[in-house]
Design a protein that fits this description.
Structural class: alpha+beta
Radius of gyration: 19 Å
Largest sheet: 6 strands, antiparallel
Helix content: 40-55%
Strand order of the largest sheet: 1-2-3-4-6-5
Order of helices and strands: HHHEEEEHHEHEHH
CATH class: Alpha Beta
Number of strands: 6
Shape: globular
CATH superfamily: Protein of unknown function DUF1054
CATH topology: BirA Bifunctional Protein, domain 2
Number of domains: 1
CATH architecture: 2-Layer Sandwich
Strand content: 5-15%
Oligomer: single chain
């Protein structure tokens, strides 16, 4: 599982992000990042499947950065990001282990066109009031909601719509930045972080009902 050695490797990688350094440090990566990531992924899948009574499938994000349009040409991501999906939902649970922090979240980086349409219809109706309340409750707990992608309310909705801000979203994601890095360490980490995901349960229920 993840440990202080994982964070130490990511910090070293961020400081010396070159192919030569990584090649020389490959054994450390395999022992403290790649192997633990696979073990954490399997443990979290099992823990979330038990908690939600739904099959949960994890995906570990790529180590190699996509450099095609990047100004920063460093070759590797100095973090571990893992997403966990369930059937019937456009949203995923997310775990991000970075050099100096742990982030967990629930959401989507981009809805497809049909999901955007369903989202707007839901937000325009009574379900939108419910979603507004859920997000306000999460903010009150110190969680962070990604800002909307659009600058203006899309047609046919008007700028004075009571949920104008929500209508400007083309995706939705909520993050908990407040957990200590050490919460991701050790054999109990998958179960521990699966339990921390309970804070997103009201949002998940809304998504499955309105968008699933």
């Amino acid at each position: 599982m993840f440990s202080a050695e994982t964070s130490r490797f990511l910090t070293d990688l961020a400081a010396t992000n070159t192919r030569d350094w990584f090649t020389a440090s490959r054994d450390r990566y395999d022992a403290h990042v790649a192997g633990p990531a696979k073990a954490f992924c399997a443990g979290f899948e099992a823990a979330m499947s038990r908690r939600t009574d739904a099959p949960v499938t994890g995906k570990i994000w790529r180590l190699n950065r996509d450099l095609r349009f990047a100004r920063d040409k460093t070759p590797y991501n100095a973090h571990v990001h893992i997403g966990f999906a369930e059937p019937g939902s456009p949203m995923i649970w997310m775990v991000g282990l970075e050099t100096d922090r742990l982030v967990i979240g629930y959401g989507a980086f981009a809805f497809d066109g049909a999901t955007v349409d369903r989202f707007r219809v839901a937000v325009d109706g009574p379900a939108g009031t419910t979603l507004d309340g859920i997000l306000n409750d999460l903010r009150a707990l110190g969680l962070r909601v990604d800002p909307p992608a659009l600058k203006r309310v899309p047609a046919p909705y008007t700028a004075d719509h009571p949920r104008a801000v929500l209508l400007r979203h083309k995706s939705l994601a909520v993050w908990n930045d407040g957990l200590p890095l050490q919460a991701a360490y050790g054999q109990d980490a998958p179960t521990r972080l699966a339990s921390e995901m309970q804070v997103f349960d009201p949002l998940r229920a809304w998504v499955l009902d309105a968008l699933g």
